Amino acid sequence: MRDTNKSEEYFKQKITDQYQRNNSRLEKINNNQIKKERVSHVLHNLSLKYLSIVKWKYLAGYDMFSKDVISDLERVYTIKQNVRKEIDLNTLKWKENGTFKKTKQYLKPSFYQFLDILSLGFLLDLSESYFLKLVNVIDEDGVKDYLLELIIKAKISNRKILTKDTFSKGEHPLQKLIDIVKMENKEEAQRYLKHFLEKYWYKSLKGLKGHNDHNKENGNYEGYWCFVAAAIVKIKQLDDSSFRDNKYYPKDLV
Predict the structure, then answer these.
(1) How many CB atoms lie within 10 A of CB 9?
(2) 240 lies in a domain?
């Protein structure tokens, strides 16, 4: 067990029940039992449910580098690449030098989902072919985000370095993490990452589905693990000894 907010039985039952629901949905899609206009929505939801399974397996203490877990994560990438869900996107508009300009960014729930998927894909060493499935979606959406690109660049070495992101005219929900990533001094980055995990990570989840679910009897508690922090430690080769036991830090994935 890596998360004691719920019992092992809770997580295992969630996993079993979700596999059954996912298989039922896939069967209905394959048998054309879902209206054509709803297929994309169902697939989008299905990709997130496989992500939930991966998270529950982490919370329950599964071997995250096992074939079964990797297969679940690969399903997230495969399904996600075939889903176009414009509702995920927000077009940010502003006036500059008398003319209106616009750029795209993900809405907060979708941004955190993409960040989790990429972080887990990097940490579990998913093959580049699968990784590219999600990267292609991000590129097609026209989103340029510093944190997403940090992980993509770490996996795909020939990826161009991002010089300007689509949050430059708006407020990034994880700006503190971006500031940490840009720090050249490793000791300083380690100190601020420790502070971020202790003071800001849980607060940043406010407003997202699942926030405070550990206090609910009937919910879908998936934990509050900061997978992106582990990805940053691995990419920047930081010493995590000062925050290794933080309750949000997935230390065994580094």
Answers:
(1) 9
(2) yes
